[in-house]
User: Which sequence fits this backbone?
């Protein structure tokens, strides 16, 4: 696990040169959206906002999986945790997200068996070790994690694991961008698109949205140099008035993406409508298990159908995810809402915009 | 605190632990010694100035690369006493054992404790054992307390940092937390990441014996370097600037942190100290620390300012800047 190569993407001279170039492009006020939470975190962690010209505003987009998870799905997780005989497995970020009445952390303190896993494979292992229990996995993710999930389900089926199910709140990135562009009041001059999602989807997945809305779009990686390069390209495209869809992460992303991963994903899952926090239902923006994998569907097995509920009063996560507001414009920010007492998921998730503002600025 | 139950976060060593201490614990036990919130209490007994400290260890797993819960418990209390500028002398040990713990494991842990105490030159002089039914504890929990003597004229405290001070860290950060996590989660490292658990009393003694000034000593354990720097910034009411380019982190530790989304600034250390020293003595203290067997990788990490009291800033590799806050959630439970 040695990742020495990283330093060349954090080189301070190169960074300075890129910032100079960005400054030298004559541009009006620009609103650029980093779609993905991993980008948001990297931007804050490396202090990128502090070295950019003030004309450039970076907005966080709908690409933090925990943040976009609808309130009713969080309630469903809590409900699963409350069931007798269930071991609920989840990535750590979801633990503290407040549902309508409780959170997984609170249920855990009450005695529910909630376990943090680092990979869905661990959840299957837990199921194998506890044959008399039902193991439910909270599947909250994008194109980056769905193929692994699909592969896990295939192997669980092969191994005859009968006590493992997932609750799928999985989502896809491109439909969210289109929905965003259709929303009144949204004003974005360029997209910084997530490298890791694109490794799977390929550049072409964004072509439809790009052609329809003609908005400068750059796919890039998560190191500071990658991000600065993307910003430079977006600034240049705005200055010349020539939008393009650019792959600035060719060391990992191809035109068509990872075909094998996509095949596995489509073998197990099919498109469905999905609810997004703050945005609402977006057609064909989710992925549900196909009929032949219904045995792995926790919602079906437990007859779980939570009602749509409203999001916490005063929480602006939805508007923040659409670039309509910044966390500091939320009335609850740093007052009622802190990482210790989170009101919305954007303050909990390690990729959440409110958490990033709170922690780093 | 709006929760009506204790959550794991309350034990994180970060912000919630601090508010638990100041809102729930301190008001009940209130006294000036406790209120100082240093690593140990500093007490006058007649003419003698003593440091007294206690700590409990619940690490999971109890054996991990480079050590086990036994030496961790001894070194931890030795270090807490040393960070008061004291020479640790006597230690007590309380053992809470789960029914069913293999005797061989128990013996190994005791032997490791004895060895750690010998190495540091302290004596284990009293103790207690309790056994609880299976499932009521997890294998073994250890409490250690210790007493040390502070030489006349020595005055180190988290509230003594002054603008202009240089900040030294005695070596690489985040080794312990990642070593324990890696074992617990069955991660396979291709290099050997080990705990840094070590006694720092000799290093501290050498600094104190020199003619150099020393304002603050702390060991950044649970909550990590980031949280400890914040504690000092608040206690001393000063600002702190550190440089990302100076942060000593092993490549494999950093890689693992990146992979799992952890910030090494918040990962526990068990054999590192940070020292705040007047600028004129900084190079000398750095050399003294580097002479010690546990201080070879020491560096100057940053400095104290009079701007933004109570806050810690990091200058990033690419020349940006960001705030380093206290740990605000449970990054890793049961790490020590
Ligand atoms: S600060 Fe809290 S309440 Fe406001 S938008 Fe963010 S998460 Fe929601």
Assistant:
């Amino acid at each position: 696990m040695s990742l020495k190569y990283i330093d060349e993407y954090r080189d301070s001279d190169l960074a300075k040169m890129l910032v100079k170039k960005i400054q030298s492009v004559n541009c009006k006020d620009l609103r650029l959206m980093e779609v993905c939470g991993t980008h948001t975190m990297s931007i804050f962690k490396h202090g990128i906002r502090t070295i950019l010209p003030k004309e450039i505003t970076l907005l966080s987009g709908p690409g933090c999986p925990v943040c976009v998870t609808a309130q009713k799905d969080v309630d469903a997780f809590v409900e699963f945790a409350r069931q007798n005989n269930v071991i609920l497995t989840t990535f750590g970020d979801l633990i503290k997200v407040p549902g309508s009445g409780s959170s997984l952390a609170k249920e855990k303190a009450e005695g529910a068996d909630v376990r943090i896993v680092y990979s869905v494979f661990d959840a299957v292992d837990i199921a194998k070790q506890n044959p008399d229990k039902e193991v439910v996995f909270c599947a909250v993710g994008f194109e980056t994690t769905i193929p692994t999930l699909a592969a896990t389900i295939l192997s669980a089926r092969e191994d005859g694991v009968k006590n493992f199910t997932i609750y799928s709140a999985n989502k896809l990135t491109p439909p969210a961008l289109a929905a965003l562009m259709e929303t009144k009041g949204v004003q974005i001059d360029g997209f910084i698109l997530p490298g890791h999602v694109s490794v799977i989807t390929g550049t072409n997945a964004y072509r439809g949205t790009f052609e329809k809305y003609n908005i400068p779009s750059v796919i890039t990686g998560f190191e500071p140099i990658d991000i600065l390069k993307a910003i430079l390209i977006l600034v240049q495209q705005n200055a010349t008035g020539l939008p393009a869809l650019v792959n600035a992460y060719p060391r990992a992303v191809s035109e068509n993406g990872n075909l094998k991963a996509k095949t596995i994903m489509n073998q197990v899952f099919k498109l469905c409508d999905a609810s997004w926090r703050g945005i609402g239902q977006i057609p064909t923006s989710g992925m549900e298990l196909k009929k032949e994998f219904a045995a792995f569907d926790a919602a079906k097995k437990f007859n779980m159908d939570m009602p749509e509920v409203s999001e916490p009063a005063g929480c602006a996560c939805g508007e923040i995810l659409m670039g309509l507001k910044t966390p500091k414009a939320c009335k609850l920010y740093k007052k009622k809402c802190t990482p210790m007492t989170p009101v919305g998921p954007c303050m909990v998730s390690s990729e959440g915009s409110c958490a990033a503002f709170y922690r780093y600025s | 605190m709006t929760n009506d139950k204790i959550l794991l976060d309350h034990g994180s060593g970060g912000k919630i632990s601090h508010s638990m201490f100041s809102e729930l614990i301190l008001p009940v036990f209130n006294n000036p010694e406790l209120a100082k919130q240093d690593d140990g209490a500093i007490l006058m007994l007649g003419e003698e100035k003593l440091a007294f400290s206690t700590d409990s260890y619940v690490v999971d797993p109890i054996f991990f690369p480079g050590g086990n819960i036994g030496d961790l418990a001894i070194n931890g209390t030795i270090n807490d006493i040393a960070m008061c500028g004291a020479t640790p002398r006597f230690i007590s040990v309380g053992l809470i054992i789960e029914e069913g713990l293999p005797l061989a494991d128990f013996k190994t842990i005791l032997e490791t404790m004895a060895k750690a105490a010998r190495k540091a030159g302290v004596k284990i002089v009293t103790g207690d054992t309790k056994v609880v039914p299976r499932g009521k504890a997890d294998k073994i929990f250890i409490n250690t307390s210790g007493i040390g003597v502070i030489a006349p004229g020595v005055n180190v405290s988290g509230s003594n940092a002054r603008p202009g001070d240089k900040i030294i860290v005695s070596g690489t950060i985040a080794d312990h937390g990642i070593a324990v996590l890696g074992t617990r989660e069955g991660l396979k490292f291709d290099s050997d990441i080990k705990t840094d658990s070590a006694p720092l009393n000799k290093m501290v003694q050498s600094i104190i014996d020199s003619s150099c000034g020393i304002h603050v000593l702390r060991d950044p354990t649970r909550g990590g370097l980031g949280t400890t720097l914040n504690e000092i910034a608040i206690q001393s009411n000063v600002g702190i600037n550190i440089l990302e380019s100076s942060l000593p982190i092993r490549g494999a530790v950093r890689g693992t942190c990146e992979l799992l989304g952890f910030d090494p600034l918040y990962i526990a250390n068990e054999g590192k100290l940070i020292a705040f020293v007047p600028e004129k003595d900084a190079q000398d203290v750095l050399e003294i620390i580097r002479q010690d067997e546990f201080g070879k990788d020491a560096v100057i990490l940053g400095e104290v300012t009079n701007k933004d009291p109570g806050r810690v800033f990091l200058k990033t590799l690419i020349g940006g800047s960001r705030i380093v806050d206290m740990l605000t959630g449970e990054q890793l439970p049961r790490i020590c």
In short: The interface with chain A takes residues 2-3, 5-9, 15-16, 19, 185, 189-191, 245, 251-252, 254-256, 258-261, 263, 314-323, 325, 328-329 of chain B (CB under 8 Å). Chain B has a mean pLDDT of 92. Chain B has two domains: 8-150, 166-323.
